[in-house]
Design the sequence.
């Protein structure tokens, strides 16, 4: 058995997985598909935890609007003990120990049916050594996160526990006067576990609430002034486990977990604060892992540029770094830092088809 | 906390010397990120959530923040603390 390091989170049962001869991908393993989680719906109990920034402490009224939206969907809502907390430097919603403890309590509490993050923003990587995989595996339940929680999603996937990416209490559900209906619809549809989950264009989008600390901005209705619309950079069909996250985080994800994306459907987006050129970010990921053997790629819309310009930039980066790839590539998809947006199962098998869109059958797989 | 103590905290968070009681946090180099640290330290000193980001946006000086903290700690103005 290969030696584990404290920096890499590879479950022992995965160390014997398939290998590749590619130097970049040496000693890495492919993504294994997970089964859909236990369905959650009206009457289910959602626990809010805060593994990222302390926005719930700073803008509790936004949390109250989001909670009302969840209750409107029929969910019961409770909060982790430290969900409204803050760290000494003010950048996180508590110490890593407090944040991890809330996650573990949510998994261990039999009355909790699903877990939703209040916000992301950073720090989830620090929580991984503080989690108890045995407790999580004994009490699997859907975990819903966003952006930086990608490390938690992959950690859970390696335990065979399904999760969802693309929704948070504050960012997605706290809008004035209410969240966009497409956002809640996709959240409810995903949590229901009913298949197939067909992801289509959601319509025009609104910018992220980047200035959430300014009441006049946070409390104003979001304006859907970013045009919707998909663009197929390359047509085709691909099937594989659907994984992904914010582009600048993916190289670290690859390194930490020792994974590669061969035969996977990889989605990615960029934050509204991402100033680095996409070519530079794409290059960083391509240097870390071979992107030529994916089953497909889904690129979320970029809040900073027009859809047309984003297609041009992504297309140029793609042609430069993986010109040989023959899989379908969808750009300006609705898994992004704008809203409304999808909630996507992480590591479940999906089909990307330029004729039919992005489809998740929600069927069990052999692990 | 006294406004002079808050002024010293401004200096500590921003690495600035000689911060006065009427200095604007953002005019002397503060940002939304450093404001998060400032508020965390003020709330820790107060022993509860007395201030939020919006307070530093609206009341940017040590003197104004000291007044808000004193008022809220006396219970005259609800802080809307964590549930």
Sequence:
């Amino acid at each position: 058995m290969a030696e584990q390091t404290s920096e890499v989170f590879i479950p022992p049962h995965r160390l014997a997985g398939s290998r590749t001869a590619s130097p970049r991908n040496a000693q890495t393993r492919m993504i294994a598909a997970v089964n859909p989680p236990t369905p959650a719906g009206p009457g289910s109990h959602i626990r809010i935890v805060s593994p990222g920034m302390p926005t719930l402490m700073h803008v509790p009224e936004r949390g109250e609007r989001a909670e009302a939206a969840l209750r409107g969907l029929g969910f019961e809502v409770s909060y982790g003990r430290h969900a409204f907390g803050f760290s000494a430097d003010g950048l996180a919603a508590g110490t890593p120990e407090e944040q991890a403890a809330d996650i573990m309590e949510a998994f261990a509490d039999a009355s909790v049916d699903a877990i939703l993050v209040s916000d992301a923003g950073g720090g989830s990587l620090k929580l991984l050594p503080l989690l108890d995989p045995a407790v999580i595996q004994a009490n699997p339940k859907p975990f819903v996160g966003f952006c930086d929680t990608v490390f938690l999603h992959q950690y859970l996937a390696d335990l065979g526990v399904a999760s969802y990416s693309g929704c948070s209490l504050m960012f997605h559900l706290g809008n004035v006067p209410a969240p966009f209906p497409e956002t809640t619809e996709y959240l409810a549809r995903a949590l229901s576990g009913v298949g197939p989950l067909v992801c289509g264009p959601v319509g025009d989008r609104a910018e992220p609430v980047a200035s959430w600390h300014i009441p006049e901005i946070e409390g104003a209705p979001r304006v859907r002034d970013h045009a919707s619309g998909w663009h197929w950079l390359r047509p085709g069909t691909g099937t594989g486990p659907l994984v992904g996250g914010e582009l600048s985080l993916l190289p670290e994800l690859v390194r930490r977990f020792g994974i590669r994306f061969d035969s996977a459907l990889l989605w990615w987006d960029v934050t509204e604060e991402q100033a680095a050129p996409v070519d530079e970010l794409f290059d960083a990921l391509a240097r870390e892992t071979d992107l030529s053997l994916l089953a497909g790629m889904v690129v979320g819309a970029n809040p900073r540029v027009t859809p047309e310009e984003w297609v041009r930039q992504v297309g140029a980066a793609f042609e430069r770094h993986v010109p040989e790839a023959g899989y379908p590539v969808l750009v300006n998809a609705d898994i992004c830092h704008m809203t409304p947006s999808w909630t996507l199962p992480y590591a479940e098998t999906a089909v990307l088809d330029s004729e039919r869109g992005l489809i998740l059958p929600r069927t069990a797989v052999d692990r | 906390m006294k406004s002079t103590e808050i002024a010293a905290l401004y200096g500590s968070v921003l690495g600035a010397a000689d911060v006065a009681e009427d200095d604007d946090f953002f005019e002397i180099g503060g940002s939304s990120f450093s404001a998060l640290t400032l508020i965390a330290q003020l709330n820790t000193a107060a022993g509860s959530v007395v201030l939020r980001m919006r307070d530093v946006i609206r009341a940017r000086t040590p003197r104004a923040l000291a007044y808000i903290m004193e008022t809220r700690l006396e219970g005259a103005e609800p802080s809307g603390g964590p549930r």
Summary: The two ends of chain A are 20 Å apart (CA to CA). Residues 1-6, 10-21 of chain A have pLDDT under 50 and may be disordered.
